[in-house]
Hints:
Blueprint (H helix, E strand, L loop, with lengths): L33 H35 L1 E2 L2 H6 L3 E2 L3 H7 L2 H34 L2 H16 L2 H11 L6 H8 L14 H28 L4 H9 L4 H12 L1 H16 L3 H6 L11 H11 L3 H33 L1
Helix pairs in contact: 1-14, 3-14, 4-8, 4-11, 5-8, 8-11, 11-14, 13-14
Amino acid sequence: MPVVDRRTPAPRTPRQRPAPRRAVRKAPPRRQGSGRAHGLWPYALIAPSIGGMLCLLGYPLVRAVLISFQDFRLRQLISGEADFVGLRNYRTLLADPRFWEVVGRTFLFMAINVVLIMVIATLVALMVERLRRVGRTVVLCSLVLAWAMPVVAATTVFQWLFHSEFGIVNWALTSLGLGSFERYPWFADGTAAFAILVTLIVWQSVPFAAITLYSALTTVPLELYESARLDGAGAGRIFRSVTFPMLRPIFLLVFSLEVIWTFKAFVQIWVMTRGGPGDATTILPVYAVQTALSSQRYDLGSAASMITVVLMSGVLVLHFRQMFRQEDETR
């Protein structure tokens, strides 16, 4: 008999259908020159701002530089023609002993103001960070109001505060039994006038610095503070080891802005004392205006302004160099 193969046939596997192909959209043909136009568009947007800045800042700066190399007095101001004298104006300034006294007073004025501003602003920022919501709102609003007060208005208020006859400072000191301050002429004393101007500059500068530092303090993680406290670190140690290292760029930025702000302080001094009594409150910007207006030596005034710009730029260059060096060391 024939043998029948009873083995069951292998099950048939269904055929796998090929995956449907996705339709690939072809990119539209790129217009020739579109990339170049797209690259020039940001420059076209900022061109009006750059042009306005060059007109408002660049032209006066170039004009002042040219006048500093010319014999430019009242006659030349009217006629519009001036002779080129090279570095004669700069040699005249550098040979003047009064100029070097003003330079030293300028750096002293800047150092006192910047140190006081940074210390007080840091303390205010740390205090605001620890206040409750209501107290924080009150302090921040007060700082903003003080910051928003116009410079001339604030200077006038300080003039009346220290007025010899009607000033509230003399009245308060006299009421406390200090009879020597009755009708005391604050602005006739060089040291007193210098201290009043320092107080005014610090009062006007602390709000900006404090608000900026407080905003930076809110970015520090609370876990770092908690870890430092668990390790037994006190408030001073936490600030030196945690807060300041993390916020070093912000502190350096505020420091640089305050250097510029105090170095070029002019309106407050000119409105309050005009550099007096004597030269007790005369710094380089005031000296430049005095030289240009009192003796009609616009050339010497422009030279003094250029020296002021160079000195301020030198201070900032040294500061930024130190800042970049510290950043490279921490990397």
